[in-house]
Every structure is written in structure tokens, then in C-alpha cells.
Design brief:
By secondary structure, the chain is mainly beta. It is built from two helices and eleven strands. The longest helix is centred in the first third of the chain and has 17 residues.
Amino acid sequence: MIKKLAALFILFGLLTANAQRPGEDEMGAWYMYFGANKVSERFSIHTEAQFRFYETTSNFNQMLLRTGLNYHINPNAMATGGYAFIETDNTFYEFEGEVDSKEHRIFEQFILKNKVWEFLFEHRYRLEQRFLDFGETTDTQHRARYRIQMTLPLTNTFFLNFYDELFINLQDDLFGQNRLYGAVGVNITENSSVQLGYLRNQFANAVYDRLQFAVFYNPDLRGLFNKKKP
């Protein structure tokens, strides 16, 4: 237990030491909800809401709403297709008459899981088709994402979670962004948990530091759909 906690402090120290703030001076925050609700043996529904701020509790940056249908190939492999709506304020300072950009996004992804000793690994491969509306102009973009995530249980209640995700543009400049994340998690019940962590979000010309608070709630809904009629 002591060795695991020491590894956590070392990792957070490295993350903080590498954090730069060329984009802004304020520490921002993302508040997030994720759900995966089984509706049959093979299918589940993904639900997600994220609210992102340039500052920890103010100065709106982005709202993201995402849903999808998961197909569980086996306990360690899953394919998903879905849709997301994103509204973004691209400016740190609020200007009168500023028009937020809007995005409709279609995505396809494949997840593989494996375990090495006590470490639980998850590999997520995602393709996105992005339809952007900037008010006076529109654009269509495509990109690929790869995320490797590692979870380390400390006890039945507490765990550590880390990931690194690379975004690759399929047009123009190849590098989109990279997200490095570390968090402490708490299992509340068998199907719910929370995580408190730090995200270093690096773009080609800026790095943003973000606190993250995430709620995960995954109730099994098969009983609602499989009720027999009297």
C-alpha cells in the first residue's frame, strides 16, 4: 500500500513539474458524467456530459454531450458507434456579441482490455467525423484518437487511474493534441465511482492545466427491458 501511494505522489510530481501555461494563467476545470447501461447481454448504452471551464468554477469554455450504442464482443472487447454535440467558446475573455462554435460529431471506436499483474489496461481506438459551425462558415474535419489507460486498485474502495491520449488530424497538421491524466478514484457502490484528477492538455502552441471531477454510474437496465407481461 505504501509503495503504491509513493508511486502516486511521484507521478503527480512529474506531471506538475512538466506543466506549462503558455495558453492562460488560470487553472481550469472539467466536470464530467459517464454512464454505460446494459440493456441486453450484448448491448449497452453510453451516456456522457462534460462541462469545461477556463477557470475552476467560471468562464465557460465547452459543453459536450455524447451518446452511443456499445456492442460487447466479449468481456475484454467492445465496439461503439455514436453521436456527440459540442458547443465551444474559444476565447478566454468574454466579448459582447461573440458567437460560440457548434459541432455535430459522429464517432466509431473499439476498446480492448487486458490485465498485467495488478494493472488493468484499456486501449481505446476512435475515429471521428466532425461537422463544425462557426456562424458565418462551416467546416468538416476528420481525426483519429488512441488512448492507453491504466487502472491500479489500491483496496476494494480506492484506486488510481492514469491515461495518455493522442489526437491525430487526418487533414492539415498531423498533430492535434495530447492529453496526460492522473487521478485518485473511489468506488461508491458496485456500479458507481468518482475520480478527482489532473489533466495536462497539450496542443501544438499551448498547454492547458485542468482539474477534473468525474462521476461514473453504470446501472444494469436489463430488468427494465426484459420484464415479462402479466
